[in-house]
Write a structure and sequence with these properties.
The chain has 2 domains: about 160 residues, Rossmann fold; about 90 residues, SIR2/SIRT2 'Small Domain', CATH 3.30.1600. It is α/β, with parallel strands linked by helices. It contains 11 helices and 9 strands. It is elongated and about 55 Å long. About 40% of the residues lie in helices and about 15% in strands. The site of nicotinamide-adenine-dinucleotide (NAD) has 28 residues, from loops.
């Protein structure tokens, strides 16, 4: 493991276009369950597909119930060691792009600016009308639910939905194109905490590898890309990223507080 950490740190230091690609696994240490692990969200709920959401009030209510359940962990979650380690790489000017499948907003909360983050699946802290596209805050939607509207509706009669991409819903065109382009231009591409099963997001590591990037996967369980990556680390995102970043900053003057993260 130590040799792998040193090699990845070395590649990060030498990189010109470092891209990180994160999934639900980086946020489990912040108390937000992932989808596919044991005890994850799919053990508890059946996903609501986009066409079901749009065609049935019962499905919309079920969807909002799931979102309210997620709020229990989301409302108390904070960026963990993994998020903070990536924020440190941003601060050092080494991280160029962060592509995330996560919808929890924790990368931005860790101090990485919006412009560097591509949220492929949106952000659940805001809510959008599916007809007029108006955005409202989560708090506003919650007030409507608390007032008795179990599936809130916009003044234009459109359905409000958290601003995330559901199964069967079209991907955001600009973000997906930008992510594909930056993945193809990366020289070091690091996946953290994803099963790499959700398409088209999971194509990004393939674009990077095909274009010659050094591909690293840090994940607790196996992924379909394990055989094609240059370094595979089975470990907890927080611990592994802390070790890697401490190795990157070794020899540079750094704040003691970071070493003790
Ligand atoms: P996933 O649930 O399919 O896989 C998560 C992976 O992370 C698993 O392979 C698991 O072994 C690994 N993992 C869990 N904890 C880890 C840790 N501490 N360190 C390292 N690895 C760890 O997640 P995915 O691939 O991101 O699935 C895609 C969908 O899940 C995305 O669309 C995303 O929007 C959604 N999602 C997001 C959140 C969030 O925003 N936090 C939470 C649940 C689901």
């Amino acid at each position: 493991m130590d040799e792998k950490i040193k090699l990845v740190a070395q590649k990060i230091k030498e990189s010109k276009q470092l891209v990180f690609f994160t999934g639900a696994g980086i946020s489990t240490e912040s108390g937000i369950p992932d989808y596919r692990s044991q005890g994850g969200i799919w053990d508890k709920f059946k996903p609501v597909y986009f066409d079901e959401f749009m065609s049935s009030k019962e499905s919309r209510i079920r969807y909002w119930e799931q979102r309210l359940d997620m709020e229990k962990s989301l409302s108390v979650s904070k960026p963990n060691q993994g998020h903070k380690s990536l924020a440190k790489l941003h601060e050092l000017g080494i991280l160029k792009t962060l592509i995330t499948q996560n919808i929890d907003g924790l990368h931005e909360a860790s101090g990485i600016p919006k412009e560097k983050i591509i949220e492929l699946h949106g952000n659940t802290r805001r809510v959008r009308c599916m007809s007029c596209r108006k955005l409202i805050s989560w708090q506003k939607a919650k007030e409507m639910i608390d007032a008795g509207d179990k599936a809130p509706v916009c003044s234009c009669s459109g359905y409000f939905k958290p601003d995330t991409i559901s199964f069967g819903q079209a991907m955001p065109v600009e973000q997906t194109k930008r992510a594909a382009m930056l993945s193809s231009k990366s020289d070091v591409f690091i996946v953290v905490g994803s099963t790499l099963l959700v398409q088209p997001a999971a194509l990004m590591p393939e674009y990077a590898k095909n274009a010659g990037a050094f591909l690293v996967i840090i994940n607790l369980s196996e992924t379909p890309y394990d055989n094609m990556c240059d370094v595979l680390i089975r470990g907890k995102a927080g611990d592994v990223l802390k070790k890697i970043v401490n190795q990157v900053v070794k020899g540079k003057p750094i704040a003691q507080s970071f070493m003790n993260l």
